[in-house]
Structures are given as C-alpha cells and as structure tokens.
Amino acid sequence: MGAVREALDALPLVDHHCHGVVGGELSREYFEELITEGGSWPGISSFDSPVGVAVRRHCGPLLDLPRHAPPAEYLARRAELGAREVNRRFLAASGTGVFCVDTGYAPDRLTTPAELADAAGGTAYEVVRLENVAEAVAAAGVEPDAYGDAFRAAVQRAVARPGVVGVKSVAAYRTGFDLDPARPSPAEVTAAAHAWSARGGRLDDPVLVRHLLWTAVDLGLPLQLHTGFGDNDIRMHRADPTHLTDWLHLTGGAIPVLLLHCWPYQRQAAYLAAVFEQVYLDVGLTLHHVGPARARAILEEALEITPFRKLLYSSDAYGVAEFYHLGALAFRRGLGDLLQDRVAADELGLPDALRIAEWAGAHNALRVYGLPGPS
Amino acid sequence: MGAVREALDALPLVDHHCHGVVGGELSREYFEELITEGGSWPGISSFDSPVGVAVRRHCGPLLDLPRHAPPAEYLARRAELGAREVNRRFLAASGTGVFCVDTGYAPDRLTTPAELADAAGGTAYEVVRLENVAEAVAAAGVEPDAYGDAFRAAVQRAVARPGVVGVKSVAAYRTGFDLDPARPSPAEVTAAAHAWSARGGRLDDPVLVRHLLWTAVDLGLPLQLHTGFGDNDIRMHRADPTHLTDWLHLTGGAIPVLLLHCWPYQRQAAYLAAVFEQVYLDVGLTLHHVGPARARAILEEALEITPFRKLLYSSDAYGVAEFYHLGALAFRRGLGDLLQDRVAADELGLPDALRIAEWAGAHNALRVYGLPGPS
Amino acid sequence: MGAVREALDALPLVDHHCHGVVGGELSREYFEELITEGGSWPGISSFDSPVGVAVRRHCGPLLDLPRHAPPAEYLARRAELGAREVNRRFLAASGTGVFCVDTGYAPDRLTTPAELADAAGGTAYEVVRLENVAEAVAAAGVEPDAYGDAFRAAVQRAVARPGVVGVKSVAAYRTGFDLDPARPSPAEVTAAAHAWSARGGRLDDPVLVRHLLWTAVDLGLPLQLHTGFGDNDIRMHRADPTHLTDWLHLTGGAIPVLLLHCWPYQRQAAYLAAVFEQVYLDVGLTLHHVGPARARAILEEALEITPFRKLLYSSDAYGVAEFYHLGALAFRRGLGDLLQDRVAADELGLPDALRIAEWAGAHNALRVYGLPGPS
Asked: What are the residues facing A281 on neighbouring strands?
C-alpha cells in the first residue's frame, strides 16, 4: 500500500469543521434527505448519486454488508443495528482524534460535541456560528440602537465558554462575498439594525454581515468561512472566496481565516492561501459528496499551489455518521495516493511526503487553533 | 473492452440537442469554418486544433481513409463520396435513436429533422428556439403594445405543432444570465417592446429576454438553455449558469431546465443539477471540440456531484455530419471508460454502472421529454 | 522516453515572457521571498510548498546535490558556487534560445536582457511595460492636459529602441478587466490625468488604464496581458480574461493579444484563443509554481480547445535562475507526456505531435513577434 498511505491511515485526524449526528432512527426518506444537498425529489433517489454510491460501497461493509448492497438492504441493516451502534461504528472507523464542532446549524436534533467525542473516543471542541448569536440577540428583543454592542458582548460571552476554539460565518449564504470590505461605522450598524428589526427574518443585511465579520476580526479567534459548495440557498458565483481579497487586505492578518469546502473554487482558495499569510483551506463536504473516486482529483487541484502548512482536514459531516467515515476515508486515500505517487515518481522525498500528510491531517489544525495533540 | 463500454456502444442514444447538417458539398474553406467556433483565419487551419485532429483520427476511417490522413486527403475523399453518402455514414455510425433538433439556428441550409432521422434510421423531434419566434413576431410588424400577447400566442402555436418536445433559449448570448430574475410586468414588456421596435435588430433587451424565459415557464415544456462554450458572441463570465439561481428559485420547478454545453462551468452546472430538482445538464458541443482525448476528463468533472438521473447526452452537432459521430463516440468512450474503471476499482457495482450508462445515454432524456423509447 | 519528449528536450525554446535574475548572492530569507508569490511568513518556509519541493528535486542535482536535499544544504551549495555559476547552470539547462524580457518590473537589481542571453547562450529581446512608461511620464512632471500625447510619444520612443518586440500591461493588477471597453475620449483622458496628478501614486485610474490599452492597439505590436495568477495585489475574479471580450471585439484584431499565466482561468483563456483570431495564451509562472507534478494537468486544460498555433511558452521567471530551468522542464515534460501519450493511444499522429511541440515551444512565438529562429 505504501508508507504514506499507511501513515495517513494510522494518523488520528483533526476534523476542524463538523456538525453533529442525528441521534434517533432514520426513515428512508429522512436518510435520503440527509445525504444530499438537494432535497426530497419524487422519483429520484439520493442513492443514485456519487455520494449514494460511495455510501453503499464504503459504509455497507462496516455494517457487515457486502459492498454495493442495495439501498433497502443498507437501510434495513442500519435500522437493525440501531443508531447508537451505527454511529459508534462509523465514528470509530473515521479515526478522528479531535473534532471542532460547529454547533450553530441544527434543524435536526443532533448529538452534542461531547456525545460525538465519546462515540469516537476523541476530544471535541466547539466553534460558534456568529449568525446564530446575532439572531439570538435580535430574538431577545434588543433595541436596534444597542444592537452593535449587544452582539459584540454576546459573541464575547459565547466564545468565553470552555472548549470554544473558533467562530464561523455563513456570510456566503446570506449576502455572498461581494460586499463592501470596510468596517461599517456605528451609525451604519444602528441604521441597519433598525431596518432589520422592522423587517425581521434571518440576518442577511449587508451592513450587519460586514459588522459580523469585523466583530470576528476583533475577537482574535480563527474564523471559519463557508465558501463554495452548499445547498441551493447559495448563489455560487458570489461564494467565490477571491471576492474576499480586499477584506483580507484590510483585516491585515489579525486572525486566521479558514476557507471551508471551496469546491468548485478550490484553485481560487489555494491562490488566497498562497498569497495571504492568514488564509487556510480545506475541501470538507466536497470529499464525501464526490466520493473516494474523485477525492484525489479535487485534492490535486487544491494543492497545486497551496503551501503545505495551509491545507486542513475537515469532514463537514452533518446528520449521518456515515459522512465522518466517508470524509476521512476520501481524505486519507486521496491525499495518500497523491503523495505516494509523487514519491514513486521521485517528485517528492518520502520524509517530505510523510510530513505533509501529518500536517494536513492534524498538525496544521492543531497549530491554527492552538490545540494540544490528540491523546 | 469491458461490459460497460460494450453496453454503451450498443445503446441507441437519445441526442436531446442537435441541429441539422449542411446538405450540399463543402469547400475546404466552408468545412474549416463549420468545424470551429472561431472563424476563417488566414494562415491558421481549423484542422490544427483538437477537433481537427479528432476528425482526422476518428472520422477518416469511416470514409475508408487511414487514421490521421491529412486534411487535403480527407476532404478529397469526402467530396468523392458525396454529401449524401458521407452524412449517411456518420449519422449511422453515431448510433443515435432519437434526435431532438433545434431548428432555430440556420445561417446555412440544413437538413430537416425528418431528413436527419431518415439518414440515421432514427426518430426526430423538434425543439423551438424562442428568440426566433420573438424576432419573427417583431418582423411581422406587431404593434409594441401587443408584443407580449403576440409572442405568447406565437410560441403556443409553435409548440403545438406535431413533434415539438421542448423549447430553447439563447439568453446566454443575448444578455447573459446576470438578469433581474423576476417576471417583468406587462407595462415593462410594452415599454421594452417599444424601444426594441424603434431600435430594431435581434432580441437582446433584458426585459424582453426575461419575458421570454418566463413565457417558457408558463408553457410547461422542458427548456433548453445554452450555457458556457460557444462562439465569440458569448460573454463567457455572464454565461455561468449559477447566475440563474434566483430565477430557478422563483420559477419553482415549474419546468425542467436543461443546461447545455456548460464547459468551462460543468462543475457549476453540476451544482445546480444537484440542488434544484428541475435542473439537468449535458456537455454537448464540448465533447467533440475537446475530442475523445479529453472527453472523459470533462465528464469526470461534470459527474462529480451530479445525480445520475440528471446527466443527458447531446451532440449539439451542427453543419457537418462528422460531429454526430464524434460527439457520440466521445460520450460513449468517455463515460464508458469512467464507469468501467470505477467498476474495476470496485468503487461502483457493475449493475449500477450499466444503469447509469443507460440513464445518461437515453433514459433520462426520454423521461424529461416524455418520449417513447427508441424503436 | 519517446520521440516527442526527445524532440521537445532538444528544442531551443522561445521564452516569450520573462524577467531578469537577481545578480548577487541571496540570503535564505531573500531566496524564500523570491520563490513565492506570497511573502515572508514567520514559521512557514517557502520551501514547504509545491514550488519549494520542485526546486529541491529538479534544481538541486544541477548544483551537484542529491535530489530532495534539504533547503539549508541547497542554499549552502548555492552560495558556495556563487551567483554567476548558479545562474549560468540554470540558464544553460533551460535550453532557451530566445528570451523576450519584460524589463518593467524590477524592485530588485536584475540582470539585463543582454546579460541573460549571454548566460544562456541565446538571444534576448525586450518587452516594454506600459504602466512604467505612463508613470515615468507622470513623474517627469507632465501637464495633465498634455498627458495623453506625452504618453503616446513616450511609448513610441520606448518601442523604437532596438530589440523591442512587444509591449505589456498589468491592467489586471491595476483595475481588473471589467472595464468599459471603449476608447476613452481625449477629454476623459485629460480629466483623469488631472485627477491622477492631484492624487499621485501608481497608474490605477480606469480611464487611464483604458487609454493605455488603446494606445497599445494603435502601436501595432503584440500586447502581453497579465491574467490570473499573481501576488495578492490581484483581485482574481477581475483578472478572468473573458472580461476582455467586448474590448477584443472593439479592437478587431488590430494586434496580437497574448494572455499570460491564465491559471486558474486557463480554460477561459483557451476559449478566447479559440474564438478570437488575435488571441494567444501561455501558462507561464503557473508551470513552475505547480511544478512538474501538475504541469501536465494544467496544460491538458489549457489545450482542451486551443488551436495549436495559439499556445506559447513562457517561463515568467523572475529573480532566481532556478525558474528558467523549472519552467522549461515543466513545459517540456508536461507537453511532451501529454502529446506522447496521445500518440501512444493513437489519438494523434506522431508527425502532428512533433509539429505541435515545435509550434508551442518556439515557432508560434517567432511568428507572433516576427522573430528569426534561434541561432
């Protein structure tokens, strides 16, 4: 198999961005909904997709099924084993040592970070989603004039809780990145808060999104940014991270900025990571959706010019425990094969390859978030 | 060769978007013009390009020539056999069972759908190009105040003809997709029709293009949209289909939307197909221009996250019969090798691979257009 | 190794866009700064990147080191040999017969074109960077009312010097390509010159950048345009060359336009080269940054639809002589393997492959710039 693949297979990963797993049993409809970024479409099964094929191929055997077992058998066996056992098997198989859990997206009832870590035998930290904090501040009935201070104070309280290691923004979903990069003035924030208060709904005002991003800059913690791939709430062309260039210049490296997912803009993200000291990237979410059959191709593009201290691992697993396993597998094989083949072609020395694997799989994240190594 | 390649080679394709073939004999200059999206350039032969190389390699043998025969020999033999025989050979070799013919682009005198089907031994349907209908309405001297109703009525008449199975828009060429997604009001349409009437020329007013797209929504028929690659009348960055996101939300799945060509935005198109129930894609036109040497690479990207019910085949052949053969060959080989290799790597089960091949090559199109299977 | 690779290895390249080499000895910090588009980042070595790995692998042996020797050994040996010998070895190894040197970017003291050609045993020509000319005109204290004429006269003087074969613009850096494509009126130029005179600083006024591009059109010389990849002064999404489409239509083929670097927009650049007679492209700078391990993948994309008379070679080497060698190596291997494999797969005839290799490596550039062949 080769030394690099072996080393990556043995490495406890640091999954710097993931979510929880749905705790209870899952109907076929619910399972199919959870494995797609699309939705429930009559007559089109989510299993008939790259991710569906990958689940049957790579997750089935962990449930004692033959490879490629049909969806009905897969789900029957899943139900038979029960959610707790299924989750335990996939989380253990993922070989994840550290989880940084974004707790801010939970339309479903999810496992807590502690439950997650427990099932996997790892350690969990928390990432605070800033839009949730802002919306909670608004929901609590803050006066628009006080919104700016109240949001800042709420964020500071949220990140002061034990185990919080970073913050996250879904600005890509709310406005896209083609925003005025400048810090908004207090008067602008107040005016926008008034308008938001009158309008209601989720935080999607461009001024308040900018204020949120600049509040993150002041915090000093690593900031995760959703970029690229997601559900149909994204306007993809506005989620190209290179629209952040002026903002990255203005913020001047105050905080690490971690570009999540990135596909189909992995090259654009790599460019930013290559020219801005504070920028890092991963291709989480993408890897399990394209599956092991294409994970390497995505990683090849993501690594074309990315400095080796700048690539991180994340699963972005949400809902089904399968995605922890699939994400980890696709990452280990994709990166492992890429590095191994470069060693075989004598384009890369073996010690270098081993170092790059360890950096991307664990050490880069430990360094950025200031975490101890996995136990 | 493998079971998937064999199955794809034997499958009568449904070519859901193509044009006609020039009926008469072709001079070298004319032939060279027809095989490029560029034009006639002194000192640069169209044969010195990926598509030119592919024609000599894959079409020459069907004219009894050795592979890679020089252009002059190729064209001499082509003339010797005569257009009728040449067209018959390439159309038969394409193994196409069903053609959906866009009859709206014909700067050259082309075969009719019936002649095409006849030469290939298949069945032909028609796709109505909406810009042509609009321009015919204007040319007939409609009063601007009556344009909206007249266009709607003309489209309804056009699609009521026997054999019409869908409509097409070249909005990508006329305005690009970065349009206001909302349905324009009757007053806006009338005002724009007045301005167009005064100005003349082709339909390129943004309000009237929006009106055209919303008229298509009301029809209920599948709508083909040119996206990405084309001649230099395109502003490529405005033909990125993700600019359609808001419009896709507003139209709410009323009609199937088929993204044509897509390159270099095949990943963006795949994203839309993965997150919008009503979106489908193909990589027609692209496949014969890149040739069999790169068709697989394009298909690999197009399929990274595309649900397997969402990929269709089209040749987008225009003018020369070679492109029916080349498009079909590039598709069969590209998809066949992709699937076969995944089966060989045990990433995909053989029955799944065979099903995906059949879906993409024929059944997805039959389903979307509501057609009977090829006879 | 194969006939195509052999032919490419023996071909004296025409490097149609490069810079000079820093003449003196280089500290580790300086060397690390010169091999990245990023900068000096504490704790992150530039050697820990694709280009760093490629330097150790492919340049070390030319300094008598084993492959993959560590950075400290590499730099020690480099210092031991001395800059003159190091430069001579890499320049000779590059096998470059002709250099077209952009002399307009020189934050460091660089070798002159003549010194460069001397070290390589080749011939050097000069490319005039238009922004420098404009800024020199302004620095000389021209009256804003006279700026338009003064700039035009200065450019004409600059290109009249012996050895000048083309001009270059970094409009991508200054404004991006999403500009009004029209030629600005004299009054607009004067107004903009007044504003620039009052404001000072580098030339980044959109009207003056347009004026600069139109001045180039009037000159009749080939115009090189930076597109895509560069340092963090770029707004990448505005450096997509398809934004030039309207300008390319308006200028109507008056001059050859050479798109440099292009990554990650090599497909967009290829599209322009395929549909505009006057457009050419290279993937210089990109090739040594991604290294030989990925050069072929980039070239595969760049060549998907590019007519074979439209691809040129450039190193875009700057600062360190290593990049002349690496760029040439990555080009020869990447293109050589691509062509050789297509010959082996019988997708391309050998004589065609040899012709394409020669065109891309030398003849296309000789033709565009009207140069005699390398001696």
From this structure: A259, A311
